[in-house]
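Technical appendix A lists one of the benchmark inputs used to test multi-chain prediction within the project. The record comprises eight sequence entries:
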Amino acid sequence: MSLNHPLVGIIMGSDSDLPIMKEAAETLEEFGVSVEVRVISAHRTPDVALAWARGAKGRGIKVIIAGAGGAAHLPGVLAALTPLPVIGVPVKTSTLSGVDSLYSIVQMPPGVPVATVGINAAKNAALLALQILALGDQEIDAKVEAFRQKQADSVAQRDAKLQEVGWKNYAKS
Amino acid sequence: MSLNHPLVGIIMGSDSDLPIMKEAAETLEEFGVSVEVRVISAHRTPDVALAWARGAKGRGIKVIIAGAGGAAHLPGVLAALTPLPVIGVPVKTSTLSGVDSLYSIVQMPPGVPVATVGINAAKNAALLALQILALGDQEIDAKVEAFRQKQADSVAQRDAKLQEVGWKNYAKS
Amino acid sequence: MSLNHPLVGIIMGSDSDLPIMKEAAETLEEFGVSVEVRVISAHRTPDVALAWARGAKGRGIKVIIAGAGGAAHLPGVLAALTPLPVIGVPVKTSTLSGVDSLYSIVQMPPGVPVATVGINAAKNAALLALQILALGDQEIDAKVEAFRQKQADSVAQRDAKLQEVGWKNYAKS
Amino acid sequence: MSLNHPLVGIIMGSDSDLPIMKEAAETLEEFGVSVEVRVISAHRTPDVALAWARGAKGRGIKVIIAGAGGAAHLPGVLAALTPLPVIGVPVKTSTLSGVDSLYSIVQMPPGVPVATVGINAAKNAALLALQILALGDQEIDAKVEAFRQKQADSVAQRDAKLQEVGWKNYAKS
Amino acid sequence: MSLNHPLVGIIMGSDSDLPIMKEAAETLEEFGVSVEVRVISAHRTPDVALAWARGAKGRGIKVIIAGAGGAAHLPGVLAALTPLPVIGVPVKTSTLSGVDSLYSIVQMPPGVPVATVGINAAKNAALLALQILALGDQEIDAKVEAFRQKQADSVAQRDAKLQEVGWKNYAKS
Amino acid sequence: MSLNHPLVGIIMGSDSDLPIMKEAAETLEEFGVSVEVRVISAHRTPDVALAWARGAKGRGIKVIIAGAGGAAHLPGVLAALTPLPVIGVPVKTSTLSGVDSLYSIVQMPPGVPVATVGINAAKNAALLALQILALGDQEIDAKVEAFRQKQADSVAQRDAKLQEVGWKNYAKS
Amino acid sequence: MSLNHPLVGIIMGSDSDLPIMKEAAETLEEFGVSVEVRVISAHRTPDVALAWARGAKGRGIKVIIAGAGGAAHLPGVLAALTPLPVIGVPVKTSTLSGVDSLYSIVQMPPGVPVATVGINAAKNAALLALQILALGDQEIDAKVEAFRQKQADSVAQRDAKLQEVGWKNYAKS
Amino acid sequence: MSLNHPLVGIIMGSDSDLPIMKEAAETLEEFGVSVEVRVISAHRTPDVALAWARGAKGRGIKVIIAGAGGAAHLPGVLAALTPLPVIGVPVKTSTLSGVDSLYSIVQMPPGVPVATVGINAAKNAALLALQILALGDQEIDAKVEAFRQKQADSVAQRDAKLQEVGWKNYAKS
């Protein structure tokens, strides 16, 4: 499978969500997966949303990551328009801290699921997308396994350093 | 203004919301306002939603009442597709009691408001629609004023009866 | 319809709410709609509230926007006193982030609706007022349609720019 | 001080709150304090609310107990209209369990306090009113002290019985 | 009634609550009511709490204001130990914003009410105490009436100034 | 790809979750996808959880659906042990209605995502699994597309019937 | 260590909590640990609470389990009066489902911890008490280990049965 | 009992929790109790978690303190793997303030309790561990009693100073 054309669409309702959502793009690119990053609003540009989502599968997109805050309809609206798996990222809001975003994304009605990750958890959305892609791509699969090992090693190394220098010194560093 | 064609569209995402949403229809009809009641899902029939909302203004609809529960996108999706005022009714859910519905409807992003009423408050949605219609229709305006007077009288009558029979007897009745 | 006298009353319970509520005034004036901005407390100046609300319709006010925080009674108290549509803006609080304001405004009893918008969403309150006014005013109607198109264009332009410069450069800018 | 005319006004926004609010009336009458029980809606009969609250102090009312649910404005509206202490009873709601009522009553702005008791805690509202009245009435004071002793005895007797019969038998009884 | 000895006890569980609770003391002293301010912890100095509360009535204290945060037991513990009215001030917490404090104070069991005010609302606690004291003291009563008038005037003056200078200039000032 | 061996593991922490989780099994079997249904507790049988999750990928499992309530650790614990995508179903609890389950499942730390669906939304978990499997299986892909069409038709038929019989008759039926 | 005198005190504020709290007593007795079950209210019988808690350690009590609902002060009040470990059981309430109880118990101030278990989790409180007692008692330690094994076996047996009969038949049984 | 080898294990899922969790270590060392501080992630290093927890009792650990935030599984996962008492510290999160952590820790299923303390309450976790250890160690017992006395004295001294200098001066200091 060629990784040169985008396999993952990363959609956000407003460019103000980019500081959060770019973590998804960064993670996917670190794994060598091309992404298509778009600012498409379910509420302000519904026609673009419809056209993009309807065409995504045909253009080779495999997984969609959508982030939104408040009455966060974007992931659900996209999920209504395409059979591709849609991963929803509830973006933290200044008023309700993202509980509004979370409920608006996760509580989808029967028939139209959105795979919801934690509030602001764009990196985890990317990792979930990679785990899904890995099911059909041995190269990504190997990278996911390696990432998980490296992640375990990182925790173990911090633990080892803490044992070595003691928690008092570690806390100061 | 003729009241023979529908002035208010009452849309719900699922016919399971009809027991709640029919209160809106009943109230509007009591005021002599024709309604168009539709089951249209933002998630399961997005094309119908788009077509209906896009055509509503042209067909003479003035106000839209939309009810939905959970990740309740319907009012916001309609509000994205038409400049008509959209009144959202958060429907109570079995799991989160409608807090999810409320947040999903009221916390709309800048530019696309939804006039949200209380959880399950379909009757109030109808009254709000009537107050809006009354701005341009003297007959409805008079009916709204009369309704409010009647409502005040009803409370006053109950109070008077309570004074008459005493709270102990009233509580038993 | 002359726009020279106020069509919309913008009422707040405390002048500390002005930084939020002035967005409503700004938006309405941008649309050429005159506003009457008042500081009237449901709790500290109830007589003024009563007099103002009772007289609003007669003086040509069409829509009322009321903002308040905490035990936010102002929108509901005004709605009790006038048949005009009242739009409530729950103002964020330092303790409960505006959940208190939201519940105090949206959960009105049967018979007295308040059209509630999101927490701190004074701009959306103004847009909702404009959508209501547009039902009876072709000039405002045209401006609302134009605003919505401009808003869609703005999102599309940001999206286009993001495609052009790439998300990495966009995120830095 | 004569107890023959009402010292405590018990106000509720709807007669549907009477099953809760009558506990306040019962408790006060058990203590020999006359009550005035009224159904007055802050939203549906605002003029009655205003007239009643404005006249309460002059007519010898000392304490007001007001119960309401949802966007529960009644206690705060009364507190705005009289310098008498107002005790608010948040009534449980079918949708938000009374959290809405609680926030709408307790989070009053500076200058206009409401003495809030627990959700549905009409009996406690009565006891609080009695504790306030007791400050200026030795007879009530003695009854409050006696009630508290009796209450302690009741708990102690249940505890004694539990020790006597054992928790297994007590649980069955 | 002499105002020279304390009529109101202001108790806090930790001196870290003083920045909030001193507003109660300031307000009461502005009204010429002497206060007794104490740091007494229901959890860390329970014996002091017991002795103080048991002796309060005998020493002429009429009303108790108690502030606490988190698992805020102090108001309820004091209310268990004295028949005097206890006003509880839920202090905002860094983790749960005072919802924990509010629930811990307001949801008292039948028989032992606490008159709860809003989160951090120490000033309102003082005003409520004054309204209670006013029932038996004409001087305080007159001051409470004057305060409420002054408060209304202050809102009216701000409103007048806003009308005079316009909301745009007012917002800048 | 043979569908004869299980492609999806459906794991629940307690057999009391089966009435909810069996909807996932039913849906998957309706699509012709074999499932492996297991009762494995992250807390009571951690070794079984470890062994099962470690072996899942090797045995041909592609997607895991895990349901749990309360401190719902099962989905996250499985996600820690396998690179396969894990879909979490927060099961409603009698005390906190599943908010506890939802937060325990969705708020996973960076590096270990769980694809969370709505409270009790086991059917949606199955559909999400099918959308993921469809990326690598044309037969499932076709069935997913057909299901979505059928679902849209069902809503449209109900809407059509409602138009035909009118909302009053529909509500009675 | 003799198990004949009570090692664990089980205290509840009201006998209405016995249906929940008796699970703690049952569990402890199943493990052969004597319990002292008392109805003592922090609010209605504070002196009994003080005397009991102060004397507990001297009488050989090792661990205290206290259950309460609403403004649930009992566990914290006991923890203030004794250095023994206090386990708090938040009892579910009809209004706030036990969130009030949970916050009132778990959010204790620095210096006075309460070991909080889940809402209504009296059985877990007993198991926690047993795990604590097991640190100094080999017999209890052995029983705790055996209980945990038995518990694991029970889950495994249900899983085995489910594999044997299939999930469809299991769900029916 | 020798205090030279660790009696308490302090485990955190990420070294970012050390600023909170080191308060537990500091408190325990102040009491002369050795601690073993480890960074072990239930999700990223599950094998280390399993090995550590399984070996803890055999190595002489008596009590485990585990802190985690978000979907905070660490305390529960450890509690599943060892019969030692596990104290859970819910760490405050930037999005949900630690409500997520609290629910993920406290709402454990029957059979596997976690002794939960308040959000970020690592010091209280240590004190609870000391109260547990004190049951079998007279030296620790004496220190716990002394600590509690000192703590009471500290509050009393602050109270005395406040009486001496007056609340106005105290508030300024």
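The domain at 8-136 of chain B is CATH 3.40.50.1970 (Rossmann fold). The mean pLDDT of chain B is 95. Comparable benchmark entries are summarised in Table A2.
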